[in-house]
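User: I've been trying to design a sequence by hand for this structure and keep getting stuck. Would you show me what you'd pick, starting by listing the structure so we're on the same page?

Assistant: Good idea, let's start from the same input. This is the structure you sent:
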């Protein structure tokens, strides 16, 4: 690292205006390609109002590109195929493994079933996902953005289609700048057609998570799907087409808030894409057979710039736009192999490790630090609470609502009558019969209002549903007395399934 680089360095990289001081000041000697040089010339606040400069990333092959292909295949495979997985929940429940039933309403995820009353579980999942993202970022930088973010995955897929139809970087640039012709029309037309097809499959797969997948596919094929379904498919097709086909890196730079606050989670032990300035500078062309003493190992080939999907020069240091995809590492390693030089001129590294190498030492990577322990404890706490609830939640819930008018009725024989509405949530996938009893009142009598013959010992609730009943509770008590009571609901076939609810029996009006 240069003297200017290490002089003012803090505990985390200094990112502003898209360029960090971590990798040194930008070099004007770089023969940056014309399209990227124009982006550099727009430095400062006005750059954010400049016209988008189309990026044509070049094809590269290497370890990180292979990882990206593998991650893309796995994530897209999960997204498109998961709605077709089956899960046997019994006769009266849907057998789709992952389903959000808006009419039920409830959400199914394999053996987990989430009711609207348990929306806090979804909140916990979101909190856990956010903490996990912070945890991974504090250790490995923006690897989420570079490998698994949906914007990155679908953009990679769209770029692959574009490259397959139009050719690699130079061919695409030449076609883009060429006047309109039959060749340009059919290549660009076919590219956009395939993009739209991918968008249709993307939107179609999304709606399958909210409906029975095989049934909905048949409805779509026969054009019998509802207007709501067609609306969602159309809107998601359009958004996928725009975001992955046109916006691309603009989403990561301007729309996604993560790029703005990522540096708050970085420190000098965070693994980031780094350029070894001590080894690479001074840059310059190198003639085969000459010594390397006069120039550094960077030959200014700009391969790292040409493969970058966001169009930045990693040699300018850590930048807000960098998504840590590692393609520049593959490109540089390929060049180093041709020059018979050691790999790693551009690599994943930490600031502390690079500083130690400059001083002749060998600082070890520190993945276990205060902030990583903090995030790990939070993940364990939130995940543990959610797991405890899922393992211990009861298959039966009881809720009792006292009548508001009249609050109570005194009968001619002196008995007091209170009216209630009870709601019984049967979370099992079988029909159940329950017995309702009351504690806290002597000789109390329960009258269940129902269209058919029903008493407090034969309350029936269907599988996976909510049963609602009106009941009257009678008791011989003096009007001056007020009682706290407990409603108990017991499954007639399984003594371990029961629920209680604390209520009150009103005997006089409040003054």
């Amino acid at each position: 690292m240069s003297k200017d680089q290490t002089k003012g360095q803090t505990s985390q990289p200094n990112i502003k205006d898209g360029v960090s001081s971590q990798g040194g000041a930008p070099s004007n000697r770089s023969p940056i390609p014309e399209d990227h040089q124009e982006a550099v010339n727009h430095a400062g606040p006005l750059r954010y109002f400049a016209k988008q400069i189309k990026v044509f990333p070049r094809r590269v092959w290497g370890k990180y590109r292979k990882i990206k292909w593998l991650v893309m295949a796995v994530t897209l495979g999960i997204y498109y195929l998961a709605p077709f997985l089956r899960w046997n929940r019994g006769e009266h429940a849907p057998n789709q493994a992952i389903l959000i039933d808006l009419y039920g309403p409830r959400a199914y995820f394999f053996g987990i079933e989430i009711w609207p009353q348990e929306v806090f579980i979804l909140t916990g999942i979101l909190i856990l996902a956010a903490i996990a993202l912070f945890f991974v970022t504090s250790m490995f930088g923006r690897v989420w953005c570079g490998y698994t973010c949906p914007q990155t995955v679908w953009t990679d897929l769209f770029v692959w289609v574009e490259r397959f139809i139009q050719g690699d970087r130079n061919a695409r640039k030449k076609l883009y700048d060429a006047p309109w012709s039959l060749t340009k029309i059919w290549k660009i037309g076919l590219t956009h057609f395939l993009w739209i097809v991918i968008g249709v499959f993307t939107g179609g797969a999304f709606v399958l998570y909210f409906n029975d997948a095989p049934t909905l596919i048949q409805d779509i094929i026969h054009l019998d799907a509802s207007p709501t379904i067609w609306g969602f498919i159309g809107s998601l097709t359009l958004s996928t087409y725009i975001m992955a086909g046109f916006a691309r890196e603009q989403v990561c730079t301007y729309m996604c808030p993560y790029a703005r606050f990522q540096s708050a989670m970085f420190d000098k032990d965070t693994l980031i894409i780094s350029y070894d300035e001590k080894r690479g500078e001074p840059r310059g062309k190198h003639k085969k057979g000459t010594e390397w003493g006069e120039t550094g190992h960077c030959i200014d080939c700009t391969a790292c710039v040409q493969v970058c999907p966001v169009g930045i020069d990693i040699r300018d240091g850590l930048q807000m736009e960098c998504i840590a995809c590692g393609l520049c590492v593959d490109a540089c390693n390929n060049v180093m192999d041709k020059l018979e030089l050691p790999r790693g001129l551009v690599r994943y590294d930490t600031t502390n490790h690079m500083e130690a190498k400059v001083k002749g030492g060998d600082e070890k990577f520190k993945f276990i630090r205060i902030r990583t322990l903090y995030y790990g404890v939070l993940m364990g706490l939130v995940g543990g609470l959610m797991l405890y609830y899922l393992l211990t939640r009861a298959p039966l819930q009881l809720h009792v609502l006292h009548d508001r008018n009249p609050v109570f009725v005194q009968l001619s024989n002196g008995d007091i009558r209170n009216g209630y509405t009870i709601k019984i949530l049967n979370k099992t996938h079988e029909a159940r019969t329950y017995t309702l009893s009351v504690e806290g009142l002597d000789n109390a009598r329960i009258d269940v209002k129902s269209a058919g013959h029903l008493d407090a010992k034969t309350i029936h609730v269907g599988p996976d549903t909510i049963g609602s009943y009106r009941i009257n509770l009678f008791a011989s008590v003096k009007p001056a007395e007020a009682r706290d009571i407990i409603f108990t609901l017991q499954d007639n076939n399984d003594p371990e399934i029961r629920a209680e609810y604390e209520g009150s029996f009103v005997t006089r009006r409040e003054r």
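That's my pick for every position. To get oriented when you compare it with your attempt: The first strand starts at residue 15 and ends at 16. Residues 149-265 form one domain.
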